[in-house]
Amino acid sequence: MFNDLSSPASLVASRRSAKPRDLVAPGPDAAQLRRILAAAMRVPDHGKLAPWRLVVIGADRRDAFAALLKQCYRADKPDAAPRELEALDQFAHQAPVLVALLSTPAPASAIPLWEQELSAGAAGMMLLTAAHAEGFAGGWLTGWPSYGPGVAEGLGHPGARIAGYFFLGTPARPLEERPRPDYDAIVSHF
Ligand SMILES: Cc1cc2nc3c(=O)[nH]c(=O)nc-3n(C[C@H](O)[C@H](O)[C@H](O)COP(=O)(O)O)c2cc1C
């Protein structure tokens, strides 16, 4: 069981990530996705700047997204091997639902950049938690598709940083748990 929805506490405690390549249909439908993304916007945000944007890359736009990644990659690495481009193609086509989260801080704001970027991270975590609450699993990936020059612009947000790609769907196989940090190594009391 990858999501224990029996109580709010067990819901949060049972969340874990899926490998995007292992996510299959069903994914969130339009109404579920709207609730997930609306939840992602309900995050602490000093100054009420909403310093993040969400770009839904629909099923009918995966080929176009793959083409964008490959075009930017070739421009960045003219000697790219075919297998590198194939990996980008596979990246773009994983999971039934794909959303890009971008960090779009207001540079002139009195709110420190760090705080605006933390808010983007919170939006990502909220997105995953909300997807879990809707009965789906998610995976947060970055890599070259996040950091490659030109990709954010191609997604409609020049100058933004891509906080990551959120792949949502249903796990094709039971999710593996991973080792979690030792509680006492992390938590101390002042
Ligand atoms: C900002 C960020 C970027 C990440 N990028 C990748 C990535 O590109 N590839 C990868 O395998 N895991 C990446 N991860 C790790 C996974 O999303 C996830 O943390 C890990 O699989 C375990 O997830 P869980 O603790 O939610 O179960 C990233 C995590 C974060 C927070």
From TrEMBL:
Sorted alphabetically, the keyword list is: Flavoprotein, FMN, NAD, NADP, Oxidoreductase
Location of the Nitroreductase domain = 13-169
Query: Could you say which EC number(s) this protein's record lists?
Result: 1.-.-.-
Question: Does the UniProt entry include the keyword Phosphoprotein?
Answer: no
Query: Is this entry keyworded Oxidoreductase?
Result: yes
* Needed cofactors: FMN
Q: Which family does it belong to?
A: Belongs to the nitroreductase family.
Spell out the protein name for this chain: Putative NAD(P)H nitroreductase
Q: Which organism is it from?
A: Sphingomonas morindae
